[in-house]
Design a protein that fits this description.
The longest helix is centred in the last third of the chain and has 30 residues. The chain has two domains: about 120 residues, no CATH class; about 220 residues, no CATH class. It is mainly alpha-helical and about 350 residues long. Helices cover about 65% and strands about 0% of the residues. Keywords: Membrane, Transmembrane, Transmembrane helix. It holds the Pfam family HGSNAT_cat.
Length: about 350
Protein backbone atom coordinates (compact mmCIF):
# COMPACT_ATOMS: atom_id res chain seq x y z
CA UNK A 1 0.00 0.00 0.00
CA UNK A 2 2.97 2.31 -0.49
CA UNK A 3 2.69 3.09 -4.20
CA UNK A 4 0.15 5.91 -3.80
CA UNK A 5 1.18 9.55 -3.55
CA UNK A 6 2.44 10.44 -0.08
CA UNK A 7 1.28 13.59 1.64
CA UNK A 8 3.80 15.07 4.05
CA UNK A 9 0.87 16.50 6.02
CA UNK A 10 -0.54 13.02 6.64
CA UNK A 11 2.85 11.67 7.72
CA UNK A 12 3.25 14.66 10.03
CA UNK A 13 -0.15 14.24 11.69
CA UNK A 14 0.38 10.51 12.07
CA UNK A 15 3.79 11.13 13.58
CA UNK A 16 2.61 13.81 15.98
CA UNK A 17 -0.11 11.42 17.16
CA UNK A 18 2.46 8.69 17.82
CA UNK A 19 4.77 11.12 19.64
CA UNK A 20 1.82 12.21 21.77
CA UNK A 21 1.02 8.56 22.56
CA UNK A 22 4.56 8.07 23.82
CA UNK A 23 4.32 11.27 25.84
CA UNK A 24 1.17 10.29 27.73
CA UNK A 25 2.13 6.62 28.11
CA UNK A 26 5.47 7.26 29.82
CA UNK A 27 5.09 9.71 32.71
CA UNK A 28 7.72 8.01 34.88
CA UNK A 29 5.48 8.37 37.94
CA UNK A 30 1.80 7.48 37.49
CA UNK A 31 1.01 9.10 40.83
CA UNK A 32 1.98 12.57 39.62
CA UNK A 33 0.99 12.74 35.96
CA UNK A 34 1.03 16.28 34.56
CA UNK A 35 -2.66 17.22 34.46
CA UNK A 36 -3.06 17.99 30.71
CA UNK A 37 -1.62 14.53 29.96
CA UNK A 38 -4.41 12.79 31.87
CA UNK A 39 -7.40 11.17 30.22
CA UNK A 40 -10.86 12.20 31.40
CA UNK A 41 -11.80 10.04 34.37
CA UNK A 42 -14.99 8.98 32.55
CA UNK A 43 -17.13 11.51 30.67
CA UNK A 44 -15.38 14.44 29.05
CA UNK A 45 -12.66 15.06 26.49
CA UNK A 46 -9.18 16.24 27.44
CA UNK A 47 -6.40 16.95 24.91
CA UNK A 48 -5.04 13.49 25.72
CA UNK A 49 -8.36 11.92 24.72
CA UNK A 50 -7.87 13.26 21.19
CA UNK A 51 -4.68 11.32 20.50
CA UNK A 52 -5.94 7.81 19.70
CA UNK A 53 -8.97 9.06 17.73
CA UNK A 54 -6.68 11.27 15.65
CA UNK A 55 -4.44 8.30 14.90
CA UNK A 56 -7.39 6.11 13.87
CA UNK A 57 -8.74 8.96 11.77
CA UNK A 58 -5.37 9.12 9.96
CA UNK A 59 -5.49 5.34 9.49
CA UNK A 60 -8.73 5.88 7.57
CA UNK A 61 -7.21 8.76 5.58
CA UNK A 62 -4.23 6.57 4.64
CA UNK A 63 -6.51 3.75 3.50
CA UNK A 64 -8.28 6.04 1.03
CA UNK A 65 -5.02 7.52 -0.22
CA UNK A 66 -3.53 4.08 -0.76
CA UNK A 67 -6.54 2.38 -2.35
CA UNK A 68 -8.55 5.16 -4.00
CA UNK A 69 -6.50 5.42 -7.17
CA UNK A 70 -6.34 1.66 -7.64
CA UNK A 71 -10.08 1.30 -7.24
CA UNK A 72 -10.78 4.07 -9.74
CA UNK A 73 -8.37 2.50 -12.25
CA UNK A 74 -10.35 -0.75 -12.10
CA UNK A 75 -7.79 -2.86 -10.24
CA UNK A 76 -8.96 -6.28 -9.08
CA UNK A 77 -10.58 -6.04 -5.66
CA UNK A 78 -9.70 -9.48 -4.33
CA UNK A 79 -5.89 -8.93 -4.18
CA UNK A 80 -6.42 -5.57 -2.47
CA UNK A 81 -8.77 -7.11 0.07
CA UNK A 82 -6.28 -9.91 0.74
CA UNK A 83 -3.46 -7.42 1.23
CA UNK A 84 -5.57 -5.38 3.66
CA UNK A 85 -6.53 -8.48 5.63
CA UNK A 86 -2.97 -9.73 5.86
CA UNK A 87 -1.62 -6.42 7.08
CA UNK A 88 -4.43 -6.09 9.62
CA UNK A 89 -3.64 -9.56 10.94
CA UNK A 90 0.04 -8.69 11.32
CA UNK A 91 -0.85 -5.54 13.29
CA UNK A 92 -3.12 -7.51 15.62
CA UNK A 93 -0.56 -10.26 16.15
CA UNK A 94 2.07 -7.63 16.99
CA UNK A 95 -0.32 -6.17 19.57
CA UNK A 96 -0.82 -9.58 21.17
CA UNK A 97 2.93 -10.21 21.22
CA UNK A 98 3.52 -6.89 23.00
CA UNK A 99 0.87 -7.77 25.57
CA UNK A 100 2.47 -11.20 26.01
CA UNK A 101 5.82 -9.50 26.66
CA UNK A 102 4.25 -7.19 29.24
CA UNK A 103 2.44 -10.10 30.92
CA UNK A 104 5.67 -12.11 31.13
CA UNK A 105 8.22 -9.49 32.14
CA UNK A 106 6.01 -7.30 34.31
CA UNK A 107 4.38 -10.28 36.04
CA UNK A 108 0.88 -9.12 35.30
CA UNK A 109 -1.80 -11.34 36.87
CA UNK A 110 -3.67 -11.87 33.59
CA UNK A 111 -2.99 -11.66 29.88
CA UNK A 112 -5.00 -8.87 28.24
CA UNK A 113 -6.42 -9.67 24.79
CA UNK A 114 -7.73 -6.26 23.55
CA UNK A 115 -5.37 -3.35 23.00
CA UNK A 116 -4.44 -0.36 20.90
CA UNK A 117 -2.81 -2.28 18.04
CA UNK A 118 -5.54 -4.90 18.09
CA UNK A 119 -8.14 -2.15 17.66
CA UNK A 120 -6.10 -0.53 14.89
CA UNK A 121 -5.88 -3.87 13.08
CA UNK A 122 -9.62 -4.49 13.28
CA UNK A 123 -10.43 -1.00 12.03
CA UNK A 124 -7.83 -1.25 9.27
CA UNK A 125 -9.36 -4.48 7.98
CA UNK A 126 -13.04 -3.57 8.15
CA UNK A 127 -12.69 0.00 6.89
CA UNK A 128 -10.26 -1.13 4.19
CA UNK A 129 -12.78 -3.68 2.94
CA UNK A 130 -15.55 -1.08 3.10
CA UNK A 131 -13.48 1.29 0.92
CA UNK A 132 -12.78 -1.53 -1.55
CA UNK A 133 -16.28 -2.97 -1.87
CA UNK A 134 -18.67 -0.10 -1.09
CA UNK A 135 -19.42 2.98 -3.15
CA UNK A 136 -18.90 6.34 -1.51
CA UNK A 137 -22.60 6.82 -0.83
CA UNK A 138 -22.75 3.39 0.79
CA UNK A 139 -19.79 4.27 2.99
CA UNK A 140 -21.67 7.32 4.29
CA UNK A 141 -24.74 5.16 4.89
CA UNK A 142 -22.60 2.64 6.77
CA UNK A 143 -21.18 5.44 8.91
CA UNK A 144 -24.68 6.72 9.72
CA UNK A 145 -25.84 3.18 10.53
CA UNK A 146 -22.88 2.59 12.84
CA UNK A 147 -23.46 5.81 14.77
CA UNK A 148 -27.23 5.34 14.99
CA UNK A 149 -27.08 1.69 16.02
CA UNK A 150 -24.36 2.29 18.59
CA UNK A 151 -26.20 5.26 20.09
CA UNK A 152 -29.38 3.18 20.36
CA UNK A 153 -27.42 0.33 21.98
CA UNK A 154 -25.87 2.61 24.60
CA UNK A 155 -29.07 4.50 25.38
CA UNK A 156 -31.18 1.35 25.49
CA UNK A 157 -28.65 -0.68 27.43
CA UNK A 158 -29.22 0.88 30.84
CA UNK A 159 -26.79 2.99 32.83
CA UNK A 160 -23.96 4.89 31.17
CA UNK A 161 -21.63 4.66 34.17
CA UNK A 162 -18.46 2.61 34.10
CA UNK A 163 -19.90 -0.49 35.72
CA UNK A 164 -23.44 -0.60 34.37
CA UNK A 165 -23.07 0.38 30.71
CA UNK A 166 -23.87 -2.25 28.11
CA UNK A 167 -20.37 -2.20 26.59
CA UNK A 168 -18.66 -3.04 29.88
CA UNK A 169 -21.25 -5.69 30.71
CA UNK A 170 -20.78 -7.37 27.34
CA UNK A 171 -16.99 -7.18 27.50
CA UNK A 172 -17.00 -8.61 31.03
CA UNK A 173 -19.18 -11.51 29.91
CA UNK A 174 -17.09 -12.32 26.83
CA UNK A 175 -13.54 -11.33 27.83
CA UNK A 176 -13.73 -11.94 31.56
CA UNK A 177 -10.26 -11.99 33.13
CA UNK A 178 -8.66 -11.20 29.77
CA UNK A 179 -9.99 -7.62 29.88
CA UNK A 180 -8.09 -4.57 31.10
CA UNK A 181 -10.06 -4.42 34.34
CA UNK A 182 -11.64 -7.52 35.86
CA UNK A 183 -13.02 -8.15 39.36
CA UNK A 184 -13.39 -11.88 39.83
CA UNK A 185 -15.53 -11.55 42.97
CA UNK A 186 -18.23 -9.56 41.16
CA UNK A 187 -17.80 -10.72 37.58
CA UNK A 188 -17.59 -7.07 36.52
CA UNK A 189 -15.02 -5.76 34.10
CA UNK A 190 -14.16 -3.05 31.63
CA UNK A 191 -11.79 -2.53 28.73
CA UNK A 192 -11.21 0.85 27.04
CA UNK A 193 -10.41 -1.03 23.81
CA UNK A 194 -13.22 -3.49 24.28
CA UNK A 195 -15.44 -5.26 21.78
CA UNK A 196 -18.56 -3.08 21.79
CA UNK A 197 -16.81 0.30 21.83
CA UNK A 198 -14.93 -0.76 18.70
CA UNK A 199 -18.14 0.20 16.86
CA UNK A 200 -17.32 3.82 17.63
CA UNK A 201 -13.68 3.37 16.65
CA UNK A 202 -14.77 1.92 13.31
CA UNK A 203 -16.88 5.02 12.71
CA UNK A 204 -13.88 7.25 13.44
CA UNK A 205 -11.72 5.34 10.96
CA UNK A 206 -14.48 5.46 8.35
CA UNK A 207 -14.77 9.23 8.81
CA UNK A 208 -11.06 9.38 8.14
CA UNK A 209 -11.49 7.33 4.97
CA UNK A 210 -14.04 9.78 3.64
CA UNK A 211 -11.75 12.69 4.55
CA UNK A 212 -8.86 10.97 2.79
CA UNK A 213 -10.90 10.71 -0.39
CA UNK A 214 -11.58 14.45 -0.28
CA UNK A 215 -7.88 15.17 0.29
CA UNK A 216 -6.88 12.93 -2.60
CA UNK A 217 -9.27 14.76 -4.93
CA UNK A 218 -8.09 18.19 -3.74
CA UNK A 219 -11.51 19.05 -2.29
CA UNK A 220 -10.12 20.99 0.66
CA UNK A 221 -13.22 23.15 1.05
CA UNK A 222 -15.38 20.03 1.34
CA UNK A 223 -12.90 18.64 3.86
CA UNK A 224 -13.28 21.78 5.96
CA UNK A 225 -17.06 21.57 5.74
CA UNK A 226 -16.96 17.91 6.78
CA UNK A 227 -14.85 18.83 9.79
CA UNK A 228 -17.08 21.70 10.86
CA UNK A 229 -20.28 19.70 10.39
CA UNK A 230 -19.01 16.64 12.26
CA UNK A 231 -17.63 18.68 15.16
CA UNK A 232 -20.89 20.66 15.47
CA UNK A 233 -23.01 17.49 15.41
CA UNK A 234 -20.76 15.90 18.00
CA UNK A 235 -21.03 18.94 20.26
CA UNK A 236 -24.80 18.96 19.99
CA UNK A 237 -25.00 15.19 20.44
CA UNK A 238 -23.00 15.34 23.66
CA UNK A 239 -26.11 16.68 25.39
CA UNK A 240 -27.67 13.24 24.89
CA UNK A 241 -24.60 10.98 24.89
CA UNK A 242 -21.62 12.66 26.60
CA UNK A 243 -18.13 12.61 25.16
CA UNK A 244 -16.53 9.43 26.45
CA UNK A 245 -13.34 7.97 25.03
CA UNK A 246 -13.57 4.68 26.90
CA UNK A 247 -17.03 4.03 25.42
CA UNK A 248 -16.08 5.86 22.19
CA UNK A 249 -19.58 7.35 22.12
CA UNK A 250 -21.08 8.64 18.83
CA UNK A 251 -20.73 12.23 20.03
CA UNK A 252 -17.05 11.53 20.73
CA UNK A 253 -16.69 10.05 17.22
CA UNK A 254 -18.13 13.13 15.55
CA UNK A 255 -16.34 15.65 17.74
CA UNK A 256 -12.88 14.10 17.39
CA UNK A 257 -13.46 13.18 13.74
CA UNK A 258 -14.48 16.76 13.00
CA UNK A 259 -11.41 18.13 14.73
CA UNK A 260 -9.31 15.57 12.86
CA UNK A 261 -10.67 16.74 9.51
CA UNK A 262 -9.97 20.37 10.40
CA UNK A 263 -6.43 19.45 11.50
CA UNK A 264 -5.90 17.57 8.24
CA UNK A 265 -7.12 20.49 6.15
CA UNK A 266 -4.89 22.88 8.07
CA UNK A 267 -1.84 20.64 7.85
CA UNK A 268 -2.40 20.15 4.12
CA UNK A 269 -2.60 23.90 3.55
CA UNK A 270 0.49 24.67 5.63
CA UNK A 271 2.74 21.70 4.80
CA UNK A 272 1.78 20.41 1.36
CA UNK A 273 0.87 23.76 -0.16
CA UNK A 274 2.74 26.45 1.77
CA UNK A 275 5.87 24.37 2.32
CA UNK A 276 6.03 24.50 6.10
CA UNK A 277 8.26 21.83 7.71
CA UNK A 278 6.50 18.52 8.33
CA UNK A 279 7.10 18.30 12.07
CA UNK A 280 6.66 14.74 13.28
CA UNK A 281 7.24 13.19 9.86
CA UNK A 282 10.01 10.86 11.10
CA UNK A 283 7.60 9.37 13.64
CA UNK A 284 4.92 9.17 10.95
CA UNK A 285 6.92 7.11 8.46
CA UNK A 286 7.90 4.61 11.19
CA UNK A 287 4.71 4.87 13.24
CA UNK A 288 4.04 1.27 14.26
CA UNK A 289 7.76 0.60 14.77
CA UNK A 290 8.09 3.63 17.05
CA UNK A 291 5.02 2.66 19.07
CA UNK A 292 6.07 -0.99 19.40
CA UNK A 293 9.70 -0.10 20.12
CA UNK A 294 8.74 2.38 22.82
CA UNK A 295 6.37 -0.19 24.33
CA UNK A 296 9.16 -2.79 24.50
CA UNK A 297 11.53 -0.22 25.96
CA UNK A 298 9.07 0.61 28.75
CA UNK A 299 8.29 -3.06 29.46
CA UNK A 300 12.00 -3.93 29.67
CA UNK A 301 12.72 -1.00 31.99
CA UNK A 302 9.80 -1.92 34.24
CA UNK A 303 10.31 -5.67 34.00
CA UNK A 304 13.95 -5.56 35.05
CA UNK A 305 13.32 -2.97 37.74
CA UNK A 306 15.29 -0.19 36.04
CA UNK A 307 12.50 2.36 35.58
CA UNK A 308 12.23 3.58 39.17
CA UNK A 309 16.03 4.06 39.67
CA UNK A 310 16.30 5.79 36.29
CA UNK A 311 13.46 8.12 37.17
CA UNK A 312 14.81 8.87 40.65
CA UNK A 313 18.46 9.34 39.74
CA UNK A 314 17.99 11.03 36.38
CA UNK A 315 15.08 13.33 37.19
CA UNK A 316 14.78 13.46 40.98
CA UNK A 317 16.96 16.56 41.18
CA UNK A 318 14.26 18.49 39.31
CA UNK A 319 11.56 18.00 41.93
CA UNK A 320 12.60 20.84 44.28
CA UNK A 321 12.42 23.25 41.34
CA UNK A 322 9.36 22.13 39.37
CA UNK A 323 7.56 19.76 41.73
CA UNK A 324 6.66 16.08 41.23
CA UNK A 325 4.28 16.85 38.35
CA UNK A 326 6.96 18.83 36.50
CA UNK A 327 9.41 15.99 37.13
CA UNK A 328 6.97 13.55 35.56
CA UNK A 329 6.50 15.82 32.55
CA UNK A 330 10.28 16.19 32.13
CA UNK A 331 10.70 12.42 32.05
CA UNK A 332 7.91 12.04 29.46
CA UNK A 333 9.47 14.72 27.24
CA UNK A 334 12.91 13.12 27.55
CA UNK A 335 11.45 9.72 26.61
CA UNK A 336 9.87 11.18 23.47
CA UNK A 337 13.10 13.03 22.64
CA UNK A 338 15.09 9.78 22.75
CA UNK A 339 12.66 8.12 20.37
CA UNK A 340 12.59 11.20 18.16
CA UNK A 341 16.36 10.87 17.77
CA UNK A 342 15.95 7.17 16.90
CA UNK A 343 13.28 7.66 14.23
CA UNK A 344 15.10 10.65 12.72
CA UNK A 345 18.24 8.54 12.42
CA UNK A 346 16.25 5.77 10.75
CA UNK A 347 14.65 8.27 8.39
CA UNK A 348 18.01 9.74 7.38
CA UNK A 349 19.22 6.25 6.50
CA UNK A 350 16.04 5.38 4.62
CA UNK A 351 15.14 2.58 7.05
CA UNK A 352 11.41 2.05 7.43
CA UNK A 353 9.85 -0.81 9.34
CA UNK A 354 6.53 -2.00 7.95
CA UNK A 355 4.11 -4.44 9.53
Amino acid sequence: MSSAKRYASVDALRGLSVAAMLLVNNPGDWGHVYAPLEHAAWNGCTPTDLIFPFFLFIVGVSISLALGGRIESGASKAPMAKMVGQRALRIMVLGLVLHLLAWWLMHKPEFRIPGVLQRIGICFALVGWAVIYLRKRSQWLLLAALLTAYAALLLGGGSLDKVGNVASRFDAAVLGRFAYEWVASTGLGHDPEGIVSTLGALATCLLGARAGDLLRRGAVRSLLLQGLAAAALGWLGSAVLPFNKQLWTPSFVLWTGGLGALALAGAHALIDRAGWPALGRSFGVNAIAAYAGAWMCTVLLEGFGWMAPLYASGFGWLQPYIGPWGQSLAFAIAFVAVWAAIVMALDRRGIYFKV
